[in-house]
């Protein structure tokens, strides 16, 4: 009986791992499919009011997003983050940005970010592609 249960647990664990890998690959592919040039315009229209995007530029209403991809959440120097964001312990990779930009309050309830999220998945992919270029 224990051996059968162990086999079933292994099968379920393997299935979950494969599903997670496929989902991560799909998100990465969506970001890769984004158009960074278009993303710059979408960023300026939707994000640039609150976020700067140049190396060394001061924070605005939101933190400077230059070099955000790969950075830990709530670590931009000189920015006062919400308690929710400070506790979030995220790493801003394509998958996390995809989830956050689709609905910031859903991903990090209590965040100060008032943006409701992108309604157009292509705009979201384009912005993520643009953020990747800011290194």
Describe this structure in words.
The protein has six helices and no strands. It is an all-alpha fold. Helix 1 crosses helix 6 (121-133), helix 2 crosses helix 6 (121-133) and helix 4 (94-102) packs across helix 6.
Summarize the structure.
The chain is mainly alpha-helical. The protein has six helices and no strands.
At CATH level 3, the topology is Cytochrome Bc1 Complex, Chain D, domain 2
User: What integer is the average pLDDT?
Assistant: 86
Derived from helix and strand composition plus strand pairing, the structural class reads: mainly alpha
In the CATH classification, which architecture applies? Orthogonal Bundle
The Cα radius of gyration reads 18 Å
Q: Give the class-level CATH name.
A: Mainly Alpha
The percentage helix is 55-70%
Euclidean distance between termini CA atoms: 55 Å
* Low-pLDDT windows of residues: none
Shape: globular
**What count of structural domains?**
1
Number of helices: 6
Please provide the count of β strands. 0
Describe the secondary-structure layout.
Layout: H1 2-33, H2 36-46, H3 83-88, H4 94-102, H5 104-107, H6 121-133
Comma- or semicolon-separated keywords:
globular, Cytochrome Bc1 Complex, Chain D, domain 2, mainly alpha
